Hints:
Structural class: alpha+beta
Number of helices: 10
InterPro entries: Acyl_CoA_acyltransferase, GNAT_dom, NAT_camello-type
Helix content: 25-40%
Keywords: Acyltransferase, Membrane, Transferase, Transmembrane, Transmembrane helix
Organism: Oncorhynchus kisutch
Protein name: Probable N-acetyltransferase 14
GO molecular function, one term: N-acetyltransferase activity
Amino acid sequence: MVKLELDQVVMRRMREDDIETVKAIIKEGCQGTENRLILHILTRPVCLLLLATVSSVLRCFLHSFILALIIPVFLLIVYLKFTMPRSTGVLGTSRPYWDYVGSSYRGAQDETLPNPYSRISGKPPPAKGKARRRTKPNAEDKDKESSPEIVDVEREKAAGQVWVADCEGEIVGCVSREGDCRLGMRRFCRVVVGCWYRREGLGRLLVQSLEQRERQTGARRVYAHVPYPSAVGEAFFRKLGYRLQGEVGYDGEEEEEDEEQPERTFLGFHVTKVFVKDLK
């Protein structure tokens, strides 16, 4: 584990040349989540009953009990592998991450989030990270620069915003806010921190800084979707003052404005838990 100086972290909007790095961090942070979700679905009583029924039917045509048992499970796993990224998304959104991230870098690139640790330490964070080393541009890079991707306005608006934590030119984490949101409501997508910088307070810094910005823009409530089997994600958001949607609020009464729907997949099973926090 690498010691991270939080007061030297710059939280800024993602740029075009950050996209591949952000995708790699997201893929690393989500590793194993999809398999845990599939296991969660396969062990639901309704799913087990369905698999047992199909196996019984296949047993009438196959002479092998093992094949009759394995084939339905195998086909269901393959089906979930293909459909789950579309239904749950890598970032906790229904949009596939390659479309979501790729459309999010446009906008005011000089925007940054406040870093409270800089005020505590008395040292201002660096305005810009160290410049990355770039090799001599080849023909492929020139083609990309000469013919930039044209992104529809609606797609860019739906993509929302991706903020990255930049420490001396290295991206060590990211947090995303979905673009489609109701008045006064915001939805945070997956918070990801590089494996070498976890348990250093970076995730907390990203979420709380983005909360402060959204509070200043008029948001009064934020939602966060956590994959159903993720005990770590649930504990993380509870420590930040979030509560599970439907739980009793701070005033002792159930909130009636909780309208966020958890993501669903095969047979309508919930694959995310919705956490909510009121910004005051």
